[in-house]
Structure formats: structure tokens, C-alpha cells
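Example 3.2
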Amino acid sequence: MTLAQQQLLLYQSPPHPCGYLDDRASSSLFIDPDARLDPASYGALLTQGFRRSGSHVYRPQCPDCHACVSARVPAARFHPRRRHTRCLRTNADIRVQPTEARFDPRHFALYQAYTAHRHGDGEMANSSETDYRDFLITDWCDSEFLEFRLGDRLVAVAVTDRLPDALSAVYTFFDPTLAGRSLGNFAILSQIARARDLGLRHLYLGYWIRDCRKMRYKGDFRPLELLLDGHWQSFGPQDDLPPAHAR
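Structure, written as C-alpha cells:
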């Protein structure tokens, strides 16, 4: 059954503290967890600003804030900036290998090291194996884990969903001792290249948030398409991105 043939039930979460902007409250719109989703229906939901966390599909629905803006890169038209070219040169010795989306103790150990460093004061820093599985793996989506290896050393993993005409970057975690390599940016560049090699149109990046340092970097990948007022709008290297209140 296609998305158009389904009448999806939507649920809204109660307001809670925003994980991105300290002075804001957040609320999300969730697709019915019992809905029968597949890569095609999820791909259609991505075009409407939704995103997945584990098996749950959601989008921000905050009445007084429109800071979260869905972002995607048109893979064939992407042109790396100078900083991206440097990043590619720096990481030319890293091998990228797609692997099956399944639990791997080596992946989990790297995830724990990353979240302990990046989210030391949050819940993610103490994630269990069950938390990890519930966050990254689902049985209805065609996903893969891109492994990044420096010799035999696993240095990063990029969880990536494959849709009929796009890839979606779910989450990337990497060795926190290698900060100088900009492995997060390198992962996005690698996912863009993989989308292009597979003949797919876009790489979905999740949400661009101008006022959040951890999410603002997505605006560097141009041309960038943003979902504003229900329409995807393209921004080239010389274009100003919209103010935070635009939607």
C-alpha cells in the first residue's frame, strides 16, 4: 500500500525542553507507530519534512518556533567549497565501506565513546545496547552503515537510509580523538558522493537550524534545498540563507 493510499494517523507530543535551543519548548508530530511504512512511503514523508528516529517518524511542530528547517543536497549539482576540498584531502587515507545495518559491538563501542564526549551531560552518554538499537535500526527501512576505516581502525560510522530516489543521513558518530579530521563533514561528503554514484537525486540532511551551532554547519553544503512554506527552495553558494523565523 502506498502512502497516498494510507490514511495516516498523526499524534502530537506535549511540549518539552528543546534539545537544540535552550530558551525554547519543543513539540513533534509523529506518524502512527502502527502504520505500515516502507522505503517508498518514507521517501514521500521526507519530502514533507519528516524524519525517522529508530522506527518512529516525526517532524517538529512547535507553535511558537520555526527554527528547524528540513534540508537536502541535490547530489548531482553539489560543488564542494574550499573547506570541503581540504577535508577530502585530509581524509584521502580513509576507506569507506558500506555494511549491513545491524548491531556490531565495534560500532557500539565507537558510539559510546562519541556520545560520552559530545553528550557527556545528557541521556545519550549512557545509552544501552537497546537504546542504541532503538535509535538507529528499524526493520522497515533499507538502511546501511557506512564504515570509515583508517587502516584497520574503525574511525566513524554513518547510518544512512536508502530511498527510491535519495539517501537520508540518519546519524554519524566518530572517534572523538580525531577532531582535526572533520569526520562529520567528511561523512556528509561521502554520502553525497554515494548518492551521486547510485544515481539518486538527493541526500537528506535532517534539520538545518541557523541559531544552533551543532546544526548550522549543514548550510555550508551548496546548493542546498530548504523546505520553506511547504515548498523546496534552492540556495546557491552566494545566496543568503533565510532568517531563523522563516518557514
